[in-house]
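Morning run. Coffee first, then this:
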Amino acid sequence: MAAESERFVLGLDAGNTVIKAVLFDLEGRKVSACALYGQSATPQPGHIERDLDELWRNACEALRRCISEAGVDPIQIVAAGCAGHGNGLYLLDRDDRPLIGIQSLDSRAAKLAAELAAEHGDGLHAASLQRPWPAQTPVLLSWMRRHRPETLRQAGALLMCKDYITFKLTGRKASDISDMSGCGLLRIPECRYDDDLLALYGLHGLGHLLPPLIDPTEIAGTATAEAAAQTGLAEGMPVIGGYFDVIASALGSGVVAPGAVSIIAGTWSINQYVSREPVVNRDLLMVSAFGCDRYMNMDNSATSASQLEWYVREFVERDGRHDDPFGHCHRRVADVVPRLDDPYFHPFLYGSSQGAEYRAGFYGLAGGHGEGQLLRALFEGVVFEHRRHLEVLRAAGAAFDGATLSGGGARSEFWAQMFADCLGVPISVAEAEETGALGAALGAGVGVGIFASYEHAVASMTRIRRVFEPNADLKAHYDRRYDVYLGLVTALQGFWNQHARNRPNEGEEAV
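And here it is:
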């Protein structure tokens, strides 16, 4: 039981699959936590959607359980912040009821993204420092205008994933600059909406859907009486604007200094570094601003730990097998002695930032290979794709001799060591596992004045659990296999392009 004088900050982290509520003391120690899985729907191939009513129900349940487990008086929770997956498309109707929730793994707008890139790519990058890509928020909104105009006519507001939860908590519709710059809807470096930018996406006349823009640490509102009754929070508790989750996870793992590198092995492969000025480079996927002279420069794709989640869901958990499915996978991988002729895996279950036509696959299988070799190939393929992104960052000017790893993949010591060995640099893993929630919580502490700055908050609330040093012999092994991996990507281009021609056109029903 906490002392009555103790104060706490709360972080919520709303990903594509899980929402977490985590309570922290002011030294960043986890007091209690609750995580709940949500369901995704696939009404057509490439369409990945969620029920926003379920998202809010899960948020309420996670908060209630978290507060109950902590055994604290809700009045001791002095502030809260929410982080959420970026991009996708969340629309409310004119009565503020959920209209549609499209997740950031969606690929329905692949052809439209390519069309926009060909016609307006230079202008879009000059304004937003992003290229169009399929699950980017403005591309999906443009897809709605083209293919679902009757639905779009009902829309009253566009929010990001975490903004919907903040709205339900406070009654205020708003979004923060990290999420809105991360989705390509802001002019950079000014961090403002721009009608000319909207027009390039084909969104002229839709600016009224965009919510008021605030700083991540600015107070968006306070918990309403209705939200307090549903969640167990105290009425009037301040809630900050919150964060694009990759920014929150970097902060929660201790990454805040210019030049520091954050790798997040989660649903997405996130590879990013901090700078005082935005990096202008067309090879980067995006730049996100999270404060005055604070930018995160990124190259990302949906090619990380989501690949293992798919394997577990489809092959390990079928028919109720294995009480510890991820532990099962790690045990099988640990039994394998790596060989140069092991099979390969391309982690493109959800496409690639290089092209939506990319597809996953295992290659080089032989009769003597078993599940351990398949899983090792999957782990390795994920690391190889992170490495490819990090090489893009290096070419854009990032110079680093170490990195901090967070996300679900960071919980695996095997995976963390593979990152160190393959990249040839020390990999630090944060003490906190729920780094996204911690980043949102420490931002809340900044917002209500507990901490004078991000640097103060990070120093007070984050610590490194372990540093994984690289093995030089295995670095040479991975270098050789990485070259083959890249060559295999090139060799499959023709097949992927041909295969893509067999898919339905955007807006058409699948046969």
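The chain has two domains: 8-253, 306-401+471-500. Good start to the day.
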